[in-house]
């Protein structure tokens, strides 16, 4: 499995409090969930790689998460999933071309940040 923090985020991981890391991993799981569901509709083969990456971040999240924070972490995941799904919807179906392009760039950047947390 993917199992580790990549080079650039490793330096960040040394200085960020574990709570910040926990929220980052939860947010990335939510974003990758939305990305995977979007890919099921528009980019079937891409969803398999996203699913693998999502599973890797779930492993990191579960290793870091105290059991008593489960509800809070789930709320972060759902919030991030909904926000990312909104970006993808605007990028795909938005009537305002400039806003759609901005949404697409932001969605791509956010997913890239999440993917950078994992070793290849």
Automatic annotation (TrEMBL):
Origin: domain of life: Bacteria
Protein name (database record): Uncharacterized protein
Naturally occurring in which organism (per UniProt): Thalassobius vesicularis
């Amino acid at each position: 499995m993917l199992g580790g923090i990549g080079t650039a985020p490793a330096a960040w991981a040394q200085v960020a409090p574990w709570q910040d890391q926990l929220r980052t991993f939860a947010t990335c799981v939510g974003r990758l969930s939305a990305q995977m569901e979007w890919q099921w509709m528009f980019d079937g083969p891409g969803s398999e790689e996203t699913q693998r990456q999502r599973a890797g971040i779930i492993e990191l999240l579960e290793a870091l998460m105290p059991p008593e924070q489960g509800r809070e972490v789930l709320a972060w995941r759902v919030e991030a999933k909904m926000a990312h799904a909104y970006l993808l919807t605007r990028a795909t179906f938005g009537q305002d071309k400039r806003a759609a392009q901005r949404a697409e760039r932001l969605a791509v950047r956010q997913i890239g940040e999440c993917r950078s947390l994992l070793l290849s």
